[in-house]
Amino acid sequence: MNIKALLKALKLRKFATTLLLLQLALTLGLVVNTVLLSLDASKKLNNPLRFDVDNLVVAQLLPTSGDYRETDYYHAITKKDLKKLTELDGVISVAQYNQLPIQNGGWNGNFKDDNTPDDVILDKDLDTVPIFYSSHIGLSNLGVDIVQGRALTKDDDMTQDYYAGKRDEIEPNIVITESLAKAVYPDESALGKLSNHGRIVGIAKDFMVNPRWQGRSKYFAVFGNFMFAQADFTQSYVLHVMPGQVKNIIEKVEETILAVQPERDIINIYSMKDRHNRFFSQESGLAKLFTTLCILMILVTIVSSFAHAHFHISQQRKYIGIRRALGATKKDIMIYVFSENWLMSIFACILGIGSTIAINILLSQVITIEKPDIELYFMAVAVIFVSGTIATWLPAYKTTKISPVIATHTL
Amino acid sequence: MEMLIYYIKLSIHNIKRHTLFFTLMITTLALGIAVLLANLAILKVMSSDPIPQKSDKIFSVNMTTWPETKGDNSEPLHILRYRDAMHILKSDIPTYSLIHYESNVYTRAVESKSLSRFGATTRATTQAFFQLTNAPFEYGQSWENENAFEVVIGADLNQKLFGGINSVGKNIEIDNKLFRIVGVLKPWHLKPLFYHASERRAFNKTDDLFAPIEVALDNSWGIGARASSTEMYNASSETREKNVFYLQAFVQLDTQQQKTEFQNYLDSYSQSLKDAGEHPFDINNKLYNVNEWLTKNKVVDDKILAFALATLLFLAVCIFNASSLLLARYHSAKFETGLRRAIGASKKQIFLQGSIESIIIGTICAFFSIVIGWIFLKLSLSLFPYLTDIANFDMQLMIMGICIAIATSFISALYPLIRASNSNISSEIK
Amino acid sequence: MLKMNSISRIFRTDTIQTHALRDFNLNVTEGEFVAVTGPSGSGKSTFLNVAGLLDTFDGGSYELDGVNVKGLSDDELSHLRNEKIGFIFQSYNLIPDFNIFDNVDMPLRYRGFNAKERKRRIESALELVGLASRQKYLPSQLSGGQQQRIAIARALAGEPKILLADEPTGNLDSLMARQVMELLHSLNEQGSTIIMVTHDPDQARAIKRNVQVIDGQITDMSIYAPLTSAQTA
């Protein structure tokens, strides 16, 4: 194969060649960066959640009637709801929560040992520790195990004392997650310690609370046994169901709740898995958008490669005819045409390094995106080669139909 | 004129003759433009000025009053506690000043036979809200008494509760209490929702119900947005005396002098708090006008912006593609061009004919761009649920699409056309 | 009508210079029929291209129908070409997917005639070549000779001062070639000025004035006795 001749032929068509090179390089850059975004989104989605996400159903609701302003009424209805929901076939357990895992923000407070003086500056992430109020089964209902100490019991329920106005007198028992325990008591066991939220009686396994938070704070959680009753605050129920029952249960939740008392607005009923997907909908949405764009770009590039080869061949018909007349086989001609495309691809891949980095820098000005790596780059190069080769196939095949006789024609 | 018709005739003839070629070209170009248009549709709404008449005169009030003595809390907050907010209302420097918080209530028309209640996003605010935001009244007006059980409702809620009639004077029930409607708003599209641009709510709809803030607090209507506090509280009614930060304040300052005076007013207030030992931080109160406030809250979504960059690149690729296709096309039409030149067409005429062809292609592109763009917009919105119904193709955007289509089509044709019209005549024909 | 004085045309590549025309002198008066002959590579085609304003020249002067061509803009040259010159090519150069009417119409469009005038001219030009009934045909539906006659009609429609023909019968069999030559002779008799490049000595012999181009220079050879068309037949 004569690379010199090829280069010369390409040089003759500077403009078209430059355009195609730019196009290939841009496509390459975009493919690499798109895949980066998609990988990032799926990595976030696949980050282990460490609780029984697959078998949980979430219901969120708000009372619509002023009657719920009465704490006792609120409590009575809530208890009835829990009872009725637990009785549903396929449900293992149900608990109410003041907030749910997989969230942004939420109900947070600072968390420290009770002996820590007021003027000590806490680590930033200890200023906003998610405080969960649920029943005594709050953690096990989510599928989170206790690793040290004990779980909360019915006796730990502080609801009555709280609403009886003895808020300041009680010393509630709480369970915290491992990461939080380690953050507050790095050198000793947290078990039995008194915190500003109560006595730590148990330590639970870490589970995902705030997926977008950095490092250990993702897993921070404090659990207390308390039935918060505030009519204007969204109430959440989580139903732990038997495997395979999620869909079935989702259909029954609304009627069950409304049968207890109809003056409620059911805001959401969905699986925890769904909650997780919705939580990352923007990341995956962006990844999908970029993927769509990427596919379009590859299609356009195929069209271009096709046109380029086609154009080249129509320009070189006679030349190819002469080659045929001089004894080149059809295969030789095919390879000649393909090698032009491959040569272009090689150049584009060199340029592509630049465009990949440039696009990455450009995007990193507005969103968080990881740095491109070499494997991804080679994957994109493969895509470019394959699509280029496919696009060149038809024109290349057509050239083999060029008769050697053409060499003897004058143009 | 006759020449123009001839050129158009020739172009249409050409397009018909090379269907596959033009289909490829038009499709790729239209795709490129469509994707860009869909993105522009979103960006346009995101970056629009919700209240152009006075966006530079309305300010979000941000203050440093967080009562903690340790750490770094000098960054001003847009959420204020009740007594700070009251201090703002007390000033007569601003032309208008309002405070508000978002809530949610369930309500029904008292006269209605049905007992079911409708959820209503609620703005607990002060009377000046309506003048400051230029809220459009259909019937009635604002409440006069900040302690009266009187509300203004939005068009949607009025439709739901009363079928859209003039409901001024009618009563609604919230938590077993009666409220009298004193005003009904026209359909009110405020995008972005500048008075609540924080917490990613800039593209929420305007509220269903507006009520005096004192009444909302007396009735303990919940706080539906960010609230930070240094002490426990159970209900919003308890927040007046406590360090609960949740109220947003906006003021209208028509002159620079007003602005300076008001800034001083805030600063001396913060200074007095500092002197009283409430906090040790530097005084750092800020007034952001509407557009600054929207920028600060990143109302233009980074992700959409990133995608816009990518769509621009894609359009570039499409233009490159169209251009190289056209180059091939003019190359294969060399003979005809040469012939026309020989017969007496000047370069200018050849160029003109090509330009007209590119404009026709551009126009066809524009049509497909708008159609594909609309589909792509729907797709984008389905992937970003919080943006749903913020954007659509309006007239302005369609005109923009047509211009972009024609411009890109022309740009793609430019180089090939120059080449074609300058090609050597004698070598093309025999 | 056509006055070329000491014309030179040089083609340059990176390494070589070729003098396609040098000190080229030719004077054609109105109503003449000139045959240009010469071996291949002698400069015949370059001459025709320069004469037809398709190509520029490097030195000398060229006057076409009283207009000095040197230094004219592309617009002016195009205009001149359109108005004063009719081309007849060896391979007809009809646009295959335009019908006969539209093909002949082409030069008239650039002249800016109105529809009525164009129609009149097209019809009379087609009449002249004897193909008036074929207006709606496509070129491919006609024989080679007919196609060349259409091409001649296209050249005539603008009522040019001079017809330039480049081997007009090169692609035709002898019968058709004869018909085309008859047409050209009769046009000449009706007053058209014609310059025709040919390599066929018989054809050349039948033409009043012969010039031969050798190495880019001209040798006037109007030595042949003019023959009547009857004698050539």
TrEMBL record, chain A:
GO terms for molecular function: transmembrane transporter activity. GO terms for cellular component: plasma membrane. The keyword Cell membrane applies. The chain crosses the membrane at residues 289-313, 333-362, 374-394. Residues 294-404 form the ABC3 transporter permease C-terminal domain. It comes from the Bacteria. Keywords: Cell membrane, Membrane, Transmembrane, Transmembrane helix. It is a multi-pass membrane protein. Belongs to the ABC-4 integral membrane protein family. This is Putative ABC transport system permease protein. It comes from Pseudoalteromonas denitrificans DSM 6059.
From TrEMBL, chain B:
It is found in: Cell membrane. The keyword Transmembrane applies. Pfam families: FtsX (PF02687), MacB_PCD (PF12704). The chain crosses the membrane at residues 20-43, 304-329, 350-377, 397-418. Residues 23-264 form the MacB-like periplasmic core domain. It comes from the Bacteria. One of its GO terms (cellular component) is plasma membrane. One of its GO terms (molecular function) is transmembrane transporter activity. This is Putative ABC transport system permease protein.
Automatic annotation (TrEMBL), chain C:
The keyword Nucleotide-binding applies. It comes from the Bacteria. Residues 2-231 form the ABC transporter domain. One of its GO terms (molecular function) is transmembrane transporter activity. Signal peptide: none annotated. InterPro entries: AAA+_ATPase, ABC_transporter-like_ATP-bd, ABC_transporter-like_CS, ABC_transpr_LolD-like, MacB-like_ATP-bd, P-loop_NTPase. Keywords: ATP-binding, Nucleotide-binding, Transport. One of its GO terms (cellular component) is transmembrane transporter complex. SMART domains: AAA. The keyword Nuclease does not apply. Belongs to the ABC transporter superfamily. Macrolide exporter (TC 3.A.1.122) family. This is Putative ABC transport system ATP-binding protein. It comes from Pseudoalteromonas denitrificans DSM 6059.
